[in-house]
Amino acid sequence: MYNKFYGFSEKPFELTPDPKFVYLTQSHREALEFMTNGIKNRRGFISIIGEAGTGKTTLIHSWLKNLNENIKTVYIFHPTITFKQLLETVLSELHLKVEERSKLGVLFRLVNYLTQMNPDETIAIIIDEAQSLPEEVLKEIQVFSHLEPNPIQILLVGQPEFLDKLSSQGLRELKQKTETHSIGLLSEEESKGYINHRLRIVGASSFEI
Length: 209
Prior knowledge:
By secondary structure, the protein is an alpha/beta fold.
């Protein structure tokens, strides 16, 4: 009802991430550059950290829309999964059939696919809400760094609790392999800019906070 009253084309504030609403602060631009360079230069494991509501997921969706066509992406947003389920999701997103359903069989199918990829192709696996990944799965994903050939890049996106998890004794090796960039909270001026940005997109040209 309020959309019609104010002349909005759609609701300006929704919980579902929508790339067209992405609002880039300096911190977000730095995060975009960090992710792009990390994947391009094949740094293996990189992570984006930010509090809930800082726009991480919206930023990721916007970034995914603008990636080079040589980068194949796998986006995982249900992180409370086993490593085998993670591997199966990767193969599914790559449209690969699996005959052997064991964890080792699924991994071998992925390795076989890697040997057939062009040298300039990359697989970017993005795991959102990474703080919810079980520690055992975080240990197991390190196997990706040992594959040959190795075009797989892992982007772990999570809240600050993810860093606490990485600091645990069992994940010290993964922490050493992972480069991290943090997205800061919006300042007062950035918050005003963010609100006005979303209002303008839905047609509220007369609003100014």
